[in-house]
Design goal:
This protein has about 425 residues and is mainly beta. The protein is built from 2 helices and 28 strands.
């Protein structure tokens, strides 16, 4: 008798669960009106996502309410797919962003702000190419909030589809950063002393890969007497720091880039303005146009600015330095990257060096190597393509070119959390 009663209780529970899942369809008033509308963004909207302001709103979704014929708590969800895909194809899995849940039976309009980092993550998950603008489409769907998402017979109403375009960036570009503002615009294509609180300044950036308050990076300065300051803007202040005391490096070879900020470092302090006081300049022996490795400890107010030449060397270059130049052409695919164009290379190993005397074992920290912990020689994945090989400053492992030929070598130093190297074979 007890077994029979227990079985009855289980069966009753299963029936109740089934009824709960499908009660909306069994509601005599339940229906799908088909009147829900995605009000904004407009069809054909073009978005630009800025990793330097990743917490900002990328777009605001506005939509009208669904009407299921009775008072219900309704859940709304945004779906996004690539423009070439079809929402109705079973193999297409949309990226979803939950909007909100509302309890009503009225004609209303709602809106939800989507942050840059959230939208970028969803677009990247769709397989969009990083660094390129791609085509997408979105729609909103609504369903009773107590209905299972997997319910086959449940109620679900969809808005119309809206097409849009957007760039997609590498999430690593959201690493903490400082702006290096200064007077080195012109050919370097950075605007002089440009800074704002919107995260859209046309000034170079240095990053903190470890998120420890220490920022570093390479900055190209194309003026004879470079001047600069640092800025860490927030929504309420530019937070600018300039010179307190000068650093003491005297030659290019006197300090290694990987040396911790020590006694030779200069000091920085809060600055009252953008450009007229507390200006930082390289030491007299190392001034002039060129590439500077800049490091700033924002917590302890220390900095250095060390000038460097960057070259490719190894068996692939017959042990001859092949120097990189900085690309300042805004129409180029390698804009603001370091390149060696149309260079003849042999098959074999090589490395990126930052000092002409860095062939000595003690100076290998002045190299870029493959970013891993394996001490053996590494093979570039495919020398015939433009695959980005992650590089590490101080990485002693060399890389190997698989096939001889003419190449364009591209060294991307824009983000110290994401250094990478490419070999692009030319016809």
């Amino acid at each position: 008798m007890k077994k029979l009663l227990f079985s009855f209780i289980i069966a009753a529970g299963m029936i109740a669960s089934f009824v709960s899942c499908d009660k909306d369809m069994n509601n005599p008033n339940a229906s799908i009106s088909g009147s829900m509308n995605l009000v904004s963004p407009n069809n054909g909207t073009s978005l630009t996502l800025n990793p330097n302001n990743f917490s900002a709103t990328a777009l605001t979704v506005r939509w009208t309410s669904a009407n299921f014929g009775y008072s219900a708590s309704v859940k709304y969800v945004l779906q996004i797919i690539s423009a070439a895909d079809n929402f109705d194809t079973s193999t297409v899995i949309p990226q979803v962003i939950p909007l909100d849940t509302y309890n009503e039976y009225t004609n209303s309009t709602y809106e939800k702000a989507i942050t840059t980092t959230t939208l970028n993550g969803k677009l990247k998950a769709l397989g969009a190419t990083i660094g390129a603008v791609s085509n997408f489409k979105m729609r909103v769907y609504a369903q009773p909030s107590n209905q299972l998402d997997t319910s086959v017979n449940g109620l679900r109403e969809y808005s119309q589809e809206v097409a849009f375009t957007s760039n997609v960036y590498d999430p690593i570009d959201e690493a903490p950063k400082l702006y290096v503002i200064g007077n080195f615009g012109a050919t370097s294509t950075f605007a002089n002393w440009d800074i704002n609180m919107n995260g859209t300044s046309n000034s170079p950036l240095i990053y903190s890969p470890l998120k420890d308050g220490v920022y570093e990076g390479f900055v190209y300065m194309n003026v004879a007497a470079p001047q600069f300051k640092f800025a860490n803007p927030t929504a309420t202040t530019l937070d600018i720091k300039g010179l307190k005391t000068q650093y003491t490096q005297t030659t290019m070879a006197s300090v290694s880039l990987t040396t911790p900020l020590g006694n030779f470092a200069g000091e920085i302090m809060a600055s009252a303005d953008v450009s007229t006081s507390n200006i930082i300049t390289p030491v007299a022996a190392l001034t002039g146009a060129g590439t500077y490795f800049i490091k700033a400890d924002w917590v302890n107010n220390k900095y250095t600015a060390i000038k460097r030449l960057i070259s490719l060397k190894g068996i692939m270059t017959s042990q001859v330095n092949k120097y990189f130049t900085y690309d300042t052409d805004p129409t180029s695919q390698t804009y603001r990257m370091f390149t060696i164009d149309n260079v003849t290379l042999s098959a074999g190993t090589g490395f990126i060096q930052l000092k002409d005397n860095s062939s000595a074992l003690a100076d290998k920290v002045e190299r870029f190597g493959i970013d891993n912990n394996v001490p053996d020689l590494q093979i570039s994945p495919d020398a015939l393509s433009s695959i980005k090989n992650k590089m590490k400053l101080g990485g002693q492992s060399q890389f190997k070119l698989l096939a001889p030929g003419n190449y364009k070598v591209v060294l991307d130093l824009r983000n110290s959390a994401n250094y990478n190297l490419r070999f692009v074979q030319l016809p």
